[in-house]
Write a structure and sequence with these properties.
The complex is a heterotrimer of chains A (about 425), B (about 290) and C (about 350). In chain A, about 40% of the residues lie in helices and about 15% in strands. Chain A is built from 14 helices and 15 strands. In chain A, helix 2 runs parallel beside helix 12, helix 3 runs parallel beside helix 4 and helix 12 packs across helix 13. Classes of the chains: A alpha/beta (about 425), B mainly alpha (about 290), C mainly alpha (about 350). Chains in contact: A-B, A-C, B-C.
Chain lengths: ~425, ~290, ~350
């Protein structure tokens, strides 16, 4: 229940922020006596805990954030600016509805005193929360959404885009072309995301010297792809690229495999998560290529993280779990360096930071558009016989260096 | 021409599947006067049950084709006895609302139990590869779905139109008073018929599992297409549901082939045209309500 | 099949029109309810988080618009999200591009919703009862497809972001939900009053007659379809006001506004609150919005299980809804009170 002091908010709110500003004007304080607003650091996890992105991120991202907190205290011990009592995590479910996400974000900042909001999958919800963050002048690190708008026209000083975006997803196509996939047919759902993906893929394929035979638009959502598959195969491409996501992607792949086209063309997927492979079964996807932001079994460091994660959740982490861990850890680390949780101070700590952690390899938090760039990977789904353990589905066939993986700073963005 | 034939075959294959899925909806309306909003959820439950049987008990597609409809029949009978029957005497809208509420519950129960990413399902043994029909190729499985759906639709139609059982059911629904006077126990037929309609939805779900994503929400948009089909065919008309199912399948295939994105909208355009020309639907007899 | 919505509404004549005792009871009731409503409208943002208060107000009016058709014409629209959503997009676009004060944008959105309601209504009212529900659902779905495709206008899946709340440059109203509420709620009350006027006019009496006995009304020389269509368009306009308020208050519009689950949600609110009363919708809206808000932070991931179960129970056992049941008790109490006075 909201308190009845709300009516005074206009006055007290200004007063409080004025006091805060005055407090921060003294410059970074020494670590021992930190400056924490309301004497707490509250991390808000706002994501889809009941809809299509539940398995990808969902409640398990809270575990990832707890792991980050644990590592922060392991790193700084008694030196830590924030004590365990002062740290709090609040969570809310967007139900995958942007209006719910928008209201919950306001409540997190206003009523739970969240200092930062993490995750927020789905473009429309992600953009709506970015607006709230800009209005409230509070931090927001997006992990779950792919839209370029977050670091484009809709960018703002308090929003960071941490893991992946539609243009980066297309970069893996170059690796496929070099692998012999010269000619492509693209099938895409005819809505914003699909159209973005087709543009990015067309660019990436042509830059690598391949050709696009045709791009076929499909309705969204759509259950029956048989006619589209026939059309895509009619030009005998080496590669069929599918830009659908979620349930539509699974519909497509099942029908693609039945159609026999698989014998003449390889399948490249625009946006696929390890949870998709897990749910449909590895044999349905075997040989499919896609761009991945992170893979749990890529090297020793990732594997160690994945083992810890599995002990707590009985499942392997997706890239979104690792990215939420990384975002939470880098945020706490920035508080440590700044000696305060003041949003503007943290923003200037993060901007331009070059960083390496379990998720970010050769990572850089770009000052120009707050896009967080890092090495990405071209992944190929293993054949069922090559899978040695549960979740061990991917073979990383190429690493895309950070500066190649992400597009240049978007001129539409002014911070 | 080549392409046109290919689309026609694909449209017929999809149409058979739509006809079967809409059939249960028409039967339930015909016999109980209930528009079953939960039909999409029953379809989803059929697919999910098949996937769970495969995963847990290693029961494969061919066995599921028999077992799942039986389970769904039992489930349908339970739903009818517990919920639907209490509202049969009231305005038709109440059961529409009730089954809407039921669909919300079923979808979220499955979501909680089996997650949201969907469940894997194998390709049925003996139905892989392509079959050549003259100049066009069609996946063997889709051809099977078409033939199987057609056979089921035909049997159901024959039973309802030509047999004593069908006569009793029709008499019980169209003229319950007179049927009662003739000593037919009307209410005894209602429950099994509802169960039968639910079993048909479950059967469509099993057929869908190998070529559609098996997820908690797989029936949510599907049920709206089914509504469009029964409105086009005429509510409660079994023949109408079947013909409209094929019609919608073809419209969708030609739409995908020639109009791309707008194939889904075309279905609703078709519905609007039918309503303008024949408000009761293609095979509807009179104002259904 | 005759409808039997279990809330009798006075049709042509009502004995209470001539019975002074009953008339007095009715005026006591009206004054009492007016006071309660006023307190609720003014106090809401003091009791609940202001953005949620705006949500409740918007959904309340949306539910009233559905009830206008369901309770008073006997038509269940299962596609009302079309009007809520079309108005939301239109209001959002007007606010973004013309920079007018937001109430103007909302009125513009409502007009757009009414325009779109004409062809849909024309086709839908040809059929009664359940056909009507299915046809409206299908058309709403069609609009959803179009909006999803039409990126340049709607922003597609990203939604229409950055809708301003301009209000004559008054900073507090534009930034503080608490103050915004008091401006927005005026539009909501206006919409509710409009619905109330429609129901309590000669036009409304004809609607109820159509609901209770369409063929007799037709025989009396009324053009039943035209009445239904007018009611449908008015209802769409009222839903449009609600959708516009919702869009402006959130500062963006998304496809969720056109989704069929939105249509389902508002029907749920209407039935839960009580059909055929106009007062029921707002109560249902408050319950559902607050419930969803609470569940969003509870970590329970099966919101449909709860709302669906409430709905099933409501339809099975409790068809008058919350308000219908309460009204019964109040009616009895005020009648007794008026008798004592008399």
């Amino acid at each position: 229940m909201a308190s009845t002091r709300r009516g005074l908010l206009g006055v007290t709110g200004f007063a409080a922020s004025a006091l805060l500003l005055a407090g921060c004007a003294g410059g970074p304080a020494p670590a021992a006596e930190s400056e924490l607003s309301d004497d707490k650091v509250v991390i808000g996890l706002l994501n889809d805990q009941s809809g299509v992105y539940k398995d990808l991120s969902g409640p398990n991202s809270e575990v990832a954030i707890e792991m980050a907190i644990e590592d922060y205290f392991a790193e700084y011990g008694d030196e830590a600016v924030v004590t365990e009592e002062q740290l709090e995590i609040v969570t809310a479910d967007t139900q995958n509805k942007p209006d719910v996400a928008n209201t919950q974000a306001q409540q997190m900042y206003d009523r739970s005193n969240a200092d930062i909001i993490l995750d927020v999958p789905a473009s429309s919800a992600a953009l709506a929360v970015a607006e709230v963050a800009a209005q409230k002048k509070k931090l927001y690190i997006n992990v779950g959404a792919a839209t370029m708008e977050l670091t484009g026209a809709a960018c703002n000083p308090y929003t960071f885009h941490w893991a992946y975006n539609t243009q980066m997803l297309a970069k893996g196509a170059a690796g496929v072309v070099e692998d012999g996939g010269e000619t492509w047919s693209l099938v895409y759902p005819d809505y914003a995301f699909g159209q973005d993906m087709v543009k990015s893929f067309t660019g990436a394929v042509e830059d690598a010297g391949g050709t696009i035979n045709e791009s076929i638009a499909t309705p969204f959502p759509n259950d029956n792809f048989s006619t589209f598959i026939t059309r895509a195969a009619s030009t005998n491409p080496d590669v069929v690229g599918i830009m659908a996501a979620g349930g539509d992607l699974i519909n497509f792949v099942k029908q693609f495999n039945q159609s026999g086209v698989r014998d003449q063309a390889t399948l490249a997927v625009g946006l696929m998560f390890i949870t998709d492979i897990h749910s449909l079964g590895v044999e349905e996807f075997a040989g499919t290529t896609f761009t991945d932001a992170w893979y749990w079994n890529y090297d020793e460091q990732n594997r160690e993280f994945a083992d810890r994660f599995q002990k707590l959740t009985d499942t392997r982490p997706s890239f979104a779990h690792a990215a939420n861990y990384s975002a939470a850890y880098q945020y706490l680390d920035a508080i440590q360096r700044a000696g305060t949780d003041d949003a503007d101070a943290i923003v200037s700590e993060l901007e331009g930071l070059k960083v390496n952690d379990v998720f970010l390899r050769n990572g850089e938090i770009r000052a120009g558009d707050h896009s967080v760039i890092h090495d990405s990977y071209v992944a190929k789904v293993k054949a069922a016989d090559d899978v040695e353990e549960d979740w061990d589905y991917e073979e990383i066939i190429a690493t895309i260096p950070a500066e190649d993986a992400f597009p240049d700073v978007n001129p539409d963005c002014s911070l | 021409m080549e392409a046109f034939l290919q689309y026609t075959v694909q449209g017929l294959a999809a149409g058979g599947f739509y006809a079967l899925a809409a059939l249960g909806l028409a039967v339930i309306f015909g016999a109980l006067g209930v528009v079953n909003f939960a039909h999409g959820s029953f379809y989803m439950l059929g697919a999910v049950t098949a996937a769970v049987l495969l995963d847990v008990l290693d029961i494969h597609f061919w066995a599921s084709l028999v077992i799942v409809p039986i389970l769904m029949f039992i489930f349908g009978v339970i739903v009818e006895l517990l919920l639907v029957q209490w509202l049969l005497k009231l305005d038709i809208l109440y059961n529409f609302l009730l089954t809407f509420g039921l669909s919300l519950v079923l979808v979220d129960l499955v979501k909680r139990q089996y997650g949201v990413s969907g469940l894997p399902y194998e390709q049925p043994a003996g139905l892989d590869g392509l079959i050549r029909l003259g100049s066009v190729e069609i996946p063997a499985y889709q051809l099977f779905v078409f033939l199987f759906s057609l056979a089921v639709c035909l049997i159901v139609w024959l039973v309802l139109a030509k047999t004593r059982v069908g006569m009793i059911v029709r008499a019980a629904t169209e003229e319950p008073e007179r049927a009662r006077a003739l000593g037919i126990n009307v209410s005894a037929w209602v429950t099994p018929v509802f169960g039968f309609g639910v079993a048909l939805a479950g059967l469509a779900g099993v057929l869908a599992a190998p070529f559609r994503a098996v997820t908690a929400t797989m029936g949510s948009n599907f049920v709206i297409i089914l509504f469009a089909i029964v409105v086009i065919g005429g509510l409660g008309s079994v023949l109408g549901a079947v013909v409209a199912g094929f019609l919608v399948g073809l419209v969708e295939a030609y739409g995908q082939g020639y109009a791309g994105t707008f194939s889904q909208v075309l279905i609703f355009v078709l519905m609007a045209v039918v309503i303008m020309v024949r408000p009761a639907g293609l095979f509807g007899r009179k104002e259904a309500v | 099949m005759s409808t039997d919505l279990e809330t009798p509404i006075p049709t042509k004549f009502d004995v209470s029109d001539f019975d002074p005792q009953a008339r007095r009871a009715r005026s006591i009731r009206r004054i009492l309810l007016g006071v309660v409503a006023l307190v609720a409208v003014i106090g809401l943002p003091w009791w609940v988080y202001p953005p949620i208060a705006v949500d409740i107000a918007a959904w309340a009016l949306f539910a009233i618009s559905v009830d206008l058709l369901l309770g008073f014409v006997g038509l269940l629209s299962f596609g009302h999200a079309a009007f809520w959503g079309v108005s939301a997009y239109s209001a959002g676009l007007i606010a973004q591009n013309l920079g007018v004060p937001f109430p103007v944008a909302i009125i513009g959105g409502a007009i757009a919703a009414m325009i779109i309601a004409v062809p849909i209504g024309y086709l839908a009212v040809k059929r009664a009862g359940i056909y009507f529900a299915m046809v409206t659902l299908a058309f709403a779905q069609m609009i959803w497809f179009v909006a999803n495709q039409w990126n340049d206008v709607t922003g597609g899946e990203n939604g229409l972001q950055g809708v301003p709340k301009s209000f004559f440059g008054i900073e507090l109203i534009e930034t503080e939900a608490f103050y915004f509420y008091y401006v927005a709620v005026i539009l909501i009350v206006l919409g509710a009053w409009l619905a109330w006027r429609i129901v309590n006019s000669p036009f409304g009496r004809v609607l109820v007659a159509i609901r209770d006995n369409p063929s007799r009304t037709r025989a009396l020389g009324y053009d039943v379809e035209r009445y239904k269509l007018i009611a449908f368009v008015l209802s769409a306009g009222i839903a449009g006001i609600a959708g516009g308020v919702f869009a402006i208050s959130h500062g963006f519009v998304s496809l969720q506004e056109l989704d069929w689950s939105t249509s389902g949600k508002v029907v749920l609110m209407t039935v839960l609150g009580g059909m055929g009363t106009l007062w029921g919708g707002p109560i249902g809206a408050a319950v559902i919005v607050l419930l969803e808000d609470r569940l969003a932070t509870s970590g329970f991931d099966g919101i449909g299980i709860i709302t669906g179960s409430i709905f099933i129970l409501c339809v099975l056992l409790f068809r008058r809804g919350i308000w219908g049941t309460a009204k019964n008790l109040i009616d009895k109490a005020t009648a007794a009170f008026a008798k004592r006075k008399g």
